[in-house]
Amino acid sequence: MLPKDFMLGAASAAYQVEGNNTHSDLWLMEQMPHTTFSEPSLDACDHYHRYEEDIRLAAAAGLNAYRFSIEWGRIEPEEGVFDEAEVEHYRDVIRCCRANGVEPVVTLHHFSSPIWLIRKGGWDAETTPADFERYVRHVMERLGGELSFVCTINEANMGLQIARIAERYAQQARAAAAAMAAASQAAEADGAVDESQVQMGLNLKKMMENQQLQKAENKEAFGTEDPQTFQSPRSRHSDEVVCEAHRRARAAIRELCPHVKVGLTLSLHDLQPVPGGEALAAAEWVDEFTHYLPVIEGDDFLGVQNYTRTRVGAEGDLPVPEGAEVTQMGYEFYPQALEHVLRAVAKEWTGDIIVTENGIGTDDDARRVAFIDEALAGVERCLDDGIPVKGYFYWSLMDNFEWQKGYSMRFGLIAFDRATQERSPKPSLAHLGSYVKKPLG
Ligand code: GCO
């Protein structure tokens, strides 16, 4: 059973739900003619204007907590220029939570950054930790008194993971190019033309041309061909910038609001080695988690985010096993992963843990319910074994803008109509809420 003070809620991120975050880097990137985004975010779910309805729906279903983020580009649209009306907007959101008996858990940075920051070098620039601290101070001086839980940076380890994934794609592309060259040589030798190889070659050429055009568009928008956004692959150097930004933000929060519990969140995979993959799986875990232990030492909690397992072979991460159920994201349906990750984390981190994201993209809400039940059963087993899990936030409160994939991924407990913005709670919302409504503890 979940303990009485357990936070049970849902999560969102400003950029994915608010709409019209015109001062943020992603806004520019979405609008580029050769963008990698499948569609622009535009009004998103108009949560900026409809937060009250959304929070009420969550509260009515029984949820007692809501994790959302503050958009830095709204608060500080130009370097050093703060928009107090936007600060007041977030105060209203926080108060709306409280009025509905919902604990607000605020994330200060969830992937999107002000355009001016990226023009200064973004998450690679030595000046960014100080810029982040200035923004954090501004927010905490005004809103900190109304908050109890703050996440500084969402998925601080994301950049290194993207670097790893990018490297794997590059390897695959090199292998495909070599296979194509060999096949076309063989075809030339016997005088035949393999149409599918020709098509693959043309696609590859198109992709490379688009990349070149996008670089030119980046240069115009950000003054550099490879802008260091939060979602670009990061080097060890830029990873250090992120970690330093967290340390400085934490120190500022401690100084201004000693009552606030502060932490960051990490994206953690349930890394399962197949025979031969043990060394690589161990190395990936070090990159994803162990590497961050010195950074989070002194935090009040760790935010854990998990969606699936990853099987690791000697050569790298393996594809989803044949015949397995896959979600809209192409992830294996594997809700047991959360328990595995919590247990792995607890071996090295003895502080409090909050599951800040866990969820499934699917149109089949019955599978969402099954996913939640399985995941929460794992959380309960961890609690029984004394692992201090303080909360669980399902991703996401509502269907929303899934970055490059646009609106096609449906993670939400609430559906919305993009034309009318009408909300429709799915059965999974009441189901998740029923864990709180049951007599607890
Ligand atoms: C994440 C993200 C979310 C995603 C979610 C589903 O932290 O990765 O917080 O923004 O939408 O993970 O892919």
Automatic annotation (TrEMBL):
Task: Pull one GO CC term from this UniProt entry.
Answer: cytosol
Would I find Hydrolase among this entry's keywords? yes
Specify where the region named Disordered lies, as residue ranges.
218-238
Q: Does the keyword NADP apply?
A: no
Q: Which Gene Ontology BP terms does the record give? A: carbohydrate catabolic process
A GO term, aspect molecular function: beta-glucosidase activity
**Keyword field:** Glycosidase, Hydrolase
Family classification: Belongs to the glycosyl hydrolase 1 family.
Q: What is this protein called?
A: Glycoside hydrolase family 1
Source taxonomy lineage?
Answer: Bacteria, Bacillati, Actinomycetota, Coriobacteriia, Coriobacteriales
